[in-house]
Write a structure and sequence with these properties.
Number of domains: 3
Low-confidence stretches: none
Helix content: 25-40%
CATH class of the largest domain: Alpha Beta
Structural class: alpha/beta
Distance between the termini: 50 Å
Number of helices: 21
Radius of gyration: 26 Å
Strand order of the largest sheet: 1-11-13-12-14-16-15
């Protein structure tokens, strides 16, 4: 970690390449067959940044994070990327300011009810509650001409604890860099959607890239945000919109006028993906993939080096085992990705370049990113839920000396509602979350249908230095996993996952947990429909009764919401029926697998079965992709169109309900049902093959 985070290493920087070459040398030293694959991607960096309050008083934003004397790498100014949002368009705009809370769609519903418009205004939103790229996206849809995103001290500054260097929270000049590319449409290089960004790839013109923002956007600190927010007038915002600054929070617009000017260099930068292989002895054409990214916004000790260091230690340990005579049955591929921070660039371009091979050979992809102290967090394909639970039972938590499974189970029981505690206690496995986006599993799972897991530790070391110059070795060793105990735990966990996937005769996928999870998704959709119908009906009654018109109080909403059509009766039975068909096939397959484990089958027969097991995830894809974002093809898991990172399960159905696109619901319900039926038929074939083993 100290070596990799010694200097800023963003995409295109000298130390980014230096780190890649250092990683390559380490993998080769450990005994791996390693190489660097190079891609060329669009990665804009700032050439001009100006933010001014021009009325009623003048204020020029500093737009710079302060050097901290005790932090030895915070002064590397000549190498640091300035605070900016990647893939914002150029712009020079002046307009009134409007505060939009977190800038989510529901926040604009509140603005509408207060009679506040953002048309031709510059919005100021606080970080949190949704991915940053959603904020300018929604602002532009409502007519805004610019967007500022600030870190409110209530969320990750002094409202949450002592600020750096006295504590781990964000200081007043701290700001969060990050991408605002519309990744829910497609991640990766904006100019090469769907194909690898190789030197000879056909590229779109920048003006034709659909994932760039429509308005200029920039992140700022709460020191720079306070004068802007203090200039606002109009109604005082509701209580849950108020941050931690010592001012009254108003909606605006008012006398406050801001000038935002941004310009970027729109050039290509190289990516350096480090790919290391350990060839399998029995099933060499089956690949177990393990990945973490190595690029950072600045020094990136927590994000991503805390994960990359542990993954590299796994590779060292597996290399030592190999030198002592062990060979994995399946080929193991370790990947150190470049360009994750701007847009999942390295993983996406590599996966798109090798798409055909991956769908034929990859049996699983296991991802990590940042790592910290606390509980094992695991999300991913629910066919791997039982598997990761079994791994967790065999890893010791370094603080409690319980298994990490037991520690997480205890927390789940503690956090469950009173009526749900017995369910949590009695379930054999704790539930893993579904994957949305935000890290390098996205192209593997949601584009190619490679079964995937995302693992890491955390939950006990909150901080406010995310994507700032303070995310460095000094900070990590003072406030996070200070003795690297959980770095060691991650290496043990990831290494165990890889060895068990690589050495299993029959891949350890289990489908009963998938079925159980699908039933919860079906129940959630039914509750969503019922809740939406009730909320709309109640709101329409209030409008009809004149409730809003009768309230003459400037602190209350003054504009009634629009009358909405009550959702029609929605028939979800095809999904429920398909789930039950899949449930029967899952039981039969698990029984056949248990019987097959007692047989001595040929390598060829086992290999054929394993390939089908791995490809079962692909049955849940639809080649047509999701509506308005065809790159995403998985019908069970996707990042939300208006959440960015947060997952939407059964996304076509769920988002059609949420966005009142009721006319598309029958087709979306049918698509999910057919995918589940394909999965059931696929499991039937695997079951017959298992029963046929000699």
């Amino acid at each position: 970690m100290e070596r990799m985070s010694a200097r800023p290493h963003h995409v295109g920087s000298p130390y980014d390449k230096d780190n890649a070459e250092w990683l390559l040398a380490r993998f080769r030293e450990f005994g791996w067959d390693a190489e660097i694959e190079v891609f060329s991607v669009l990665f804009p960096t700032p050439t001009e940044r100006v933010l001014e309050l021009v009325a009623p008083t003048r204020f020029t934003a500093r737009l710079e994070e302060a050097v901290v004397s005790v932090d030895p790498t915070s002064n590397q100014k000549n190498e640091q990327l300035p605070t900016y949002n990647a893939y914002s368009i150029d712009g020079d705009v002046t307009g009134p300011l409007v505060y939009v809370n977190y800038g989510r769609p529901q926040d604009y519903d509140v603005l509408e009810r207060y009679g506040v418009s953002v048309k031709d205004a510059i919005v100021i939103a606080r970080y949190g509650e949704s991915w940053r790229g959603i904020k300018p996206k929604v602002a532009a849809e409502h007519g805004a001409i610019g967007c500022l995103i600030y870190s409110d001290p209530r969320d990750d500054g002094f409202g949450a604890g002592e600020v750096f260097p006295n504590g781990p929270m964000r200081p007043s000049d701290g700001a969060q860099r990050g991408s605002v590319m519309d990744m829910p449409v497609y991640p990766g290089d904006p100019l090469t959607p769907g194909v690898g960004a190789t030197a000879d790839a056909r590229r779109l013109a920048v003006k034709d890239a659909t994932t760039l923002t429509r308005i200029p956007v920039m992140p700022i600190s709460y020191a720079d945000a306070q004068p802007l927010l203090a200039s606002l007038t109009g109604a005082v915002v509701p209580a849950d919109w108020r941050g931690g600054l010592p001012i009254a929070y108003h909606f605006g617009p008012g006398a406050g006028q801001a000038h935002l000017k941004l310009a970027f260099s729109w050039d290509q930068k190289p990516l350096y993906d480090v790919i290391a292989r350990l060839r399998g002895s029995t099933f060499p054409d089956q690949w177990v993939l393990r990945g973490n990214h190595h690029d950072a916004w600045v020094n990136g000790a927590e994000d991503p080096v805390s994960g990359m260091a542990a993954v590299l230690e796994e590779a060292r340990a597996l290399g030592e085992l190999h030198k002592q005579g062990w060979s994995p049955k399946r080929t193991i591929i370790y990947c150190a990705w470049d360009g994750e921070e701007p847009a999942l660039l390295g993983s996406t371009e590599w996966a798109e370049t090798h798409a055909g091979e991956l769908q034929q050979h990859a049996v699983a992809y296991v991802n990590s990113d940042s790592n910290g102290r606390g509980f094992l967090e695991a999300e991913g394909s629910h066919t791997l839920e039982r598997f990761i639970n079994d791994v967790a039972r065999d890893i010791e938590d370094p603080e409690t000396h319980l298994s990490v499974w037991k520690r997480k189970q205890a927390r789940a029981i503690d956090q469950a509602k009173a009526e749900d505690k017995d369910k949590v206690r009695s379930r054999a496995d704790w539930r893993i979350g579904a994957l949305g986006s935000g890290s390098d599993y996205t192209p593997f799972l949601q584009h190619l249908g490679v079964p995937s897991l995302n693992i890491g530790y955390g939950g006990e070391d909150s901080s406010g230095i995310y994507h700032s110059i303070y995310d460095d070795f000094y900070f990590y060793t003072h406030f996070l996993d200070t003795d690297f105990a959980y770095g060691r735990a991650l290496a043990q966990t990831g290494g165990t996952v890889v060895i068990r996937l690589a050495d299993a005769d029959i891949l350890p996928f289990q489908y009963a947990n998938l079925v159980d999870t699908l039933r919860t998704y079906d129940e959630e959709l039914q509750v969503l429909v019922k809740k939406k119908r009730e909320e709309i009906a109640e709101r329409n009654r209030e409008i009809a009764d004149g409730v809003f018109a009768a309230i003459n109080d400037p602190r209350r909403p003054r504009v009634a919401p629009k009358v909405e059509p009550v959702p029609p009766a929605i028939e979800l039975t095809p999904i429920a029926r398909a789930i039950e068909t899949l449930a029967r096939r899952a039981v039969a397959l698990d029984e056949a697998r248990a019987a097959a484990a007692k047989k001595s089958a040929s390598t060829a027969a086992l290999a054929a079965i394993d390939v089908k097991i791995a490809q079962s995830e692909q049955q849940l894809l639809d080649a047509a992709g999701l509506v308005h974002r065809e790159w995403f093809k998985h019908l069970l898991y996707a990042p939300g169109f208006y959440t960015g990172y947060g997952v939407k399960t059964m996304p076509g159905v769920r988002e059609a309900i949420e966005q009142a696109q009721y006319q598309s619901l029958p087709a979306e319900i049918a698509r999910v049902a057919k995918a589940l039926e394909r999965e059931a038929a696929w499991l039937d074939v695997i079951t017959k093959d298992l029963r046929g083993l000699k």
